[in-house]
Specification:
It is a single chain. The chain is of the alpha+beta class. The protein has 2 domains: about 375 residues, Glycosyltransferase (Alpha/alpha barrel); about 220 residues, Beta-galactosidase, Chain A, domain 5. Helix content is about 40%, strand content about 20%. Helix 2 crosses helix 3, helix 11 runs parallel beside helix 13 and helix 16 packs across helix 18. The longest helix is centred in the first third of the chain and has 25 residues. The radius of gyration is 25 Å and the shape is elongated. The protein starts with 6 loop residues before the first helix and ends with a strand.
């Protein structure tokens, strides 16, 4: 599907922006409070403050879009006034750093640092303030107020972003890292510097060097290019081990940095050399289409969600870069409404439901407008093996998919999940990966692996001699390969044993299902364990799982006990989700032992 027509999508996106602006203009400007900030340090809860914080960012994004895209939205004086009000509210915040990334001193303005969200706030305000400078409502009614806001913002940007970044090299752990933090933080430092310079010259009438000297801006760009090269090379085999959500987050900012470099006219920073340093990124560009399972589902290892909305802005830009980037035809067909017609149930809008990120909202409109003609449609590929990262994905025609991983238990946003898999039938999870839980202090602390979704207890892997999997990069799969119609993995090291002591073989039987052959040596007690959100029904040696559109049967032979344990999983949004762990106990009186579990589609 070359030269895709995105006109209807863009029209409906504008309608959505207007609808949200009409809703929010009737509400007061929210405020992130000190009391909610301190709650994190008292209880470990992040959600109370973050809901307030992101409610402010929602208004910043919506009214920022209304006013910056005034030629398409027809934004009036009221929207412009609200946007300036929201911006002043953000400028009055003592810190832009979330409590989970900061300290008690941050909320009193005693300490400043760069985390994901302080960086995003600086970058977002920089771009918004530059884009709205020629808006007639701003120019004719609020120009003095707008200019004063720019003056205040530039001074604050110097304190909260530029000074912090330039005073240390590296600025923080993330500068030379390979996670989404690297891309988001470093890109926003660049975004801030790039647009602050333009604001200085176009709005304040100052030489941009008064904002950042040539040497300072050059240093920012030099360090940013080196960091971005590290970030993108970490995915050179085509996998983001952090998962789909974090891939989209990091890649969006990587592409923004790439776009700025591509349009930068300042010859003193050698933008072409920096683009060469970053190099090609075709394999990472293909990640989303390779892990897509149909009906909005994607492979969700680590802190990711199985339901992932497509970001048309990212896909449009990547399609412009590489002909091989394609959207699954499922996105055009399974809803009976093309996503390009504005079926926003399957696409991200306005920066996402949770964080309302400015760049997400803007790029999902502007990049589609600029690069949407390059969007292409493909039939789903049947399988893909990521050999270096030990991921394998197999798909069938009716939105049924299987995915399994090896790897190690020290990956970014790690779960103890070596050898775990997921199975989706007709778009519905049968055996699942729970993905991300509620982010709390404990979630990223010493108690992380006592939380169900992070522990191997919350994954489709066995309990060996009463032990769950260990944590660390030595807890790993030794081998991971395809042989005929089987996927084979050895991962005894995940349990502190020799690699060959625990071996899993998945034998695929066409579209009918598969057999799990788990082999053990020098192991006495085994509990085969599988997790599901469906209510299991035990009938003899068989467990039945039935969903709305399909189901499976699981046949256990030779067990010493077959039973179900009910658990509560706190999902990423803080909701309590009831899940079920199917367990089958086995006793091994031999040196070597093989357990077969047959899984059939109903």
């Amino acid at each position: 599907m070359k030269n895709t027509d995105t006109k209807e999508y863009l029209e409906n996106y504008i309608k959505l922006i207007k609808k949200e602006a009409l809703r929010l203009i009737k509400a007061p400007v929210p405020k992130a409070t000190r009391e909610a900030y301190m709650l994190y340090f008292e209880t470990g809860s992040r959600l109370t403050f973050e809901k307030q914080y992101f409610a402010v960012r929602e208004q910043l994004t919506v009214f920022g879009l209304m006013v910056s895209l005034w030629e398409d939205t027809g934004a009036d004086k009221e929207c412009a006034a609200r946007l300036l009000h929201v911006i002043k509210s953000v400028l009055n915040e003592n810190t832009w750093v979330l409590p989970a990334h900061g300290s008690r001193e941050h909320i009193d303005g005693k300490v400043q640092s760069i985390d994901l969200f302080s960086a995003e706030t600086g970058g977002s305000l920089s771009e918004i303030l530059y884009l709205i400078k020629d808006n007639p409502a701003i120019r004719d009614n609020f120009y003095n107020e707008y200019r004063n806001i720019c003056l205040t913002f530039i001074k604050l940007l110097r304190i909260r972003i530029f000074n912090i970044f330039l005073e240390k090299n590296p600025c923080d752990w993330w500068e030379g890292g390979t996670t989404n933090w690297t891309s988001v933080c470093i890109s926003n430092v660049v975004i801030s510097g790039y647009y602050a310079g333009l604001i200085g010259s176009d709005v304040l009438g100052e030489n941009p060097r008064n904002i950042l000297s040539v040497n300072e801006y050059g240093e920012i760009m030099e360090r940013a290019a080196a960091s971005m090269a590290c970030y993108i090379r970490s995915m050179e085999a085509g996998v983001c081990t952090e998962g789909c959500g974090y891939y989209k987050y990091g890649m969006e900012y990587f592409l923004k940095f790439h776009e700025i470099l591509s349009q930068e006219k300042n010859i003193y920073i050698n933008p072409r050399d920096k683009l060469k340093l970053i190099g090609e990124f075709k394999e990472p560009a293909l990640f989303l289409q390779r892990i897509y399972l149909g009906m909005g589902n994607s492979v969700n290892f680590a802190d990711s969600a199985v339901k992932n909305k497509m970001k048309l802005g990212i896909i449009s830009y990547l399609s412009y870069m590489y002909d091989e980037v394609e959207l699954s035809d499922d996105f055009f067909n399974y809803s009976n409404k093309s996503i390009l017609s504005g079926e926003f149930k399957y696409t991200e809008t306005l920066g996402g439901e949770e964080c309302h990120r400015w760049l997400g909202g803007y790029s999902d409109y502007m990049w589609v407008k600029k690069y949407g003609k390059y969007l292409k449609c493909q039939a789903d590929c049947k399988e893909h093996m990521f050999e270096n990262n030990m991921w394998y994905i197999k798909r069938w025609k009716d939105k049924t998919g299987f995915y399994i991983k090896g790897g190690n238990n020290n990956e970014s946003h790690n779960h103890n999940d070596v050898g775990s898999f997921g199975y989706i039938v007709r778009g519905e999870e049968m055996l699942c990966d729970l993905g991300a839980g509620e982010y709390t202090r404990d979630y990223f602390g010493k108690n992380r692996y006592e939380i169900l979704c992070n522990s191997s207890e919350g994954h489709n892997v066995p309990i060996v001699d009463g032990k769950y999997q260990l944590t660390g990069d030595t807890a790993r799969a030794e081998s991971f390969y395809l042989k005929a119609d089987s996927l084979i993995i050895t991962y005894g090291a995940a349990y502190g044993l020799r690699p060959e002591c625990v071996k899993r073989k998945i034998i695929f039987k066409g579209e009918d299902g598969f057999t799990i052959c788990d082999s053990y040596c020098n192991v006495k007690r085994i509990t085969e364990s599988f997790i599901t959100k469906l209510v299991p029904v035990i009938n003899g040696n068989t467990v039945m799982l039935k969903g709305d559109s399909g189901g499976i049967s699981m046949d256990f032979k030779g067990h010493m006990g077959l039973y179900v344990r009910e658990k509560i999983h706190n999902d990423h949004d803080g909701n309590k989700v009831r899940v079920y762990i199917i367990k089958a106990d086995y006793i091994n009186n031999e040196t070597a032992y093989v357990i077969e579990i047959n899984i059939k589609r109903l």
